[in-house]
Design goal:
The protein is mostly helical. Helix content is 68%, strand content 0%.
Length: 220
């Protein structure tokens, strides 16, 4: 991308109009990471939470030597939405150094959205050591955390967790059953296939469809 275009984006990021700043961040998708990150940094403290959220997400897809430490700092932000965004961005970044900070965040943060993002990102990192944390998340009273844990255990292909995961095949929450049906695509075992055959007959069409798709993936 030529220099004048970058200068135009930089100018738009300093615009008093919210829409201009949001559009400018969107344009940064087309900019190389080394050029984009200095511009992203301009709006990490923006007065608009929408702009800040977009900037944090952008750090997750524009990997430079600065992206990881910046996201680590944002895990300490006062706003739970920004902490959740930073946790999610670390999952996109897929830097293995994020494992310990995400585990700590899951245990220490009090907001469910932050813990949800941490669990999802632990799955994205595909570190099998996340199994212990994610199995604890399975026993949360919050359905969204159960969903995140099931999906992440599928991502890390934790066969040891399969029995605990299968206990959700009769969950009252169809979204949990759907997430299970999707996660089971990562396991080609007699137990997982039997569970998918069961979920294929689920009363909710989206659960049934997810189970059918997972069986097709296993057999392909």
């Amino acid at each position: 991308m030529n220099q004048p275009h970058l200068e135009q984006i930089a100018k738009e990021l300093e615009s008093p109009r919210l829409r201009d700043r949001m559009v400018a961040i969107t344009k940064l998708r087309e900019v190389e990471a080394e050029q984009a990150v200095p511009l992203i940094k301009k709006v990490l403290d923006d007065p608009s939470l929408q702009v800040r959220s977009m900037a944090v997400f952008a750090l997750g897809i524009k990997a430079t030597s600065e992206s990881f430490p910046l996201l680590l700092e944002l895990l300490e932000d006062d706003d739970y939405g920004i902490r959740a965004d930073a946790a999610g961005a670390l999952g996109y970044l897929q830097d293995p150094r994020a494992f310990d900070p995400l585990v700590r965040l899951f245990y220490e943060d009090t907001h469910w959205l932050v813990r949800f993002s941490a669990a999802v990102s632990l799955g994205n990192l595909q570190n099998p050591e996340a199994k212990v944390v994610l199995e604890q998340a399975l026993h949360s009273e919050q359905g969204v955390l159960q969903q995140a844990a099931i999906a992440a255990l599928g991502e890390i292909k934790s066969v040891e967790s399969l029995d605990e995961m299968l206990s959700f095949a009769q969950s009252q929450d169809w979204l949990v059953r759907q997430r299970l049906a999707q996660a089971l695509a990562n396991f080609s075992t007699d137990k997982s296939i039997s569970a998918l055959n069961y979920l294929q007959k689920d009363s909710h069409p989206q659960v049934s469809e997810a189970a059918t798709h997972s069986l097709e993936q296993i057999r392909s």
